[in-house]
Amino acid sequence: SAVISQKPSRDICQRGTSLTIQCQVDSQVTMMFWYRQQPGQSLTLIATANQGSEATYESGFVIDKFPISRPNLTFSTLTVSNMSPEDSSIYLCSVVSPKGGTGRGPQETQYFGPGTRLLVL
Amino acid sequence: LAKTTQPISMDSYEGQEVNITCSHNNIATNDYITWYQQFPSQGPRFIIQGYKTKVTNEVASLFIPADRKSSTLSLPRVSLSDTAVYYCLVRNSGNTPLVFGKGTRLSVIA
Q1: Which residue from B42, B87, B97 is facing A45, i.e. has the nearest CB?
Q2: Quick check: helix, strand or coil at residue B77?
């Protein structure tokens, strides 16, 4: 399994400012993802962040708004830039880690961090 | 990726068995069915995964018929703490991020 921590756990920000969210994993992982969950909604994938390469963004998300860093195999940051109230969401970091179990199926499981709750005023 | 369809919400009394059915008509040969649970203010948590027939762990059972176009998550004897959103997902490899649908909001009442 993988234990993921995120900082900050929550924040209240003013519009026009930026916030950087940190994600720390207790083991080395290749694949890391960032999701957004707006109030009362399901999770939406923002981007895939692999160490040593540029992040890959999903439709509707751009690097200028959500720059991502992935300096090593245990850490990543997501910045929410020039924030507006529409950016108020929970931002979640997620990794794929070997399951290490037996039986048929992919040997990887996707784990999620506790999320960062962002409110933009 | 195959699209999944599941009920928006379900209610249950404590102590009952809850079955949540998910349809995935376009599931591919290499796809697996995965279920996650999410409590308020927490990230989703892996519950169970299967390819076909039946899979059981300490939390739940997963029933998958031969055609694999649907699956049923079974939660035995639910308690109030099982109140959460349950997501049915289809995945084919560890390199592909999970794509979430709307999920099923389960409410357990005393």
Answers
A1: B97
A2: coil
Quick one: pLDDT band at residue A105, thresholds 50, 70, 90?
Answer: very low
Query: Mean pLDDT, to the nearest integer, of A104-120?
Result: 83
Element (H, E) at B107: strand B104-109
- Inter-chain residue contact A112 with B50, CB threshold 8 Å: no
- Tokens (6 digits) for B40: 């308020």
> Cα dist. A74→A26, A30, A58, A70 in Å?
7, 9, 22, 8
Q: Which residue of A has its CA nearest to B95?
A: A31
Percent residues over pLDDT 90 in chain A: 78
- Residue B47 touches chain A, beta carbons under 8 Å: no
Q: Residue B109's beta-bridge partner residues?
A: B13
What is the rounded distance in angstroms from the CA atom of residue A35 to the CA atom of residue A12? 19
Given this model, what pLDDT does residue A58 score? 96
d(CA A79, CA B106): 33
As a whole number of angstroms, the distance between CA A84 and CA A42 comes to 20
Angle made by CA atoms A40, B5, B89, in degrees to the nearest 5: 80
- Tell me chain B's radius of gyration from C-alpha atoms: 13
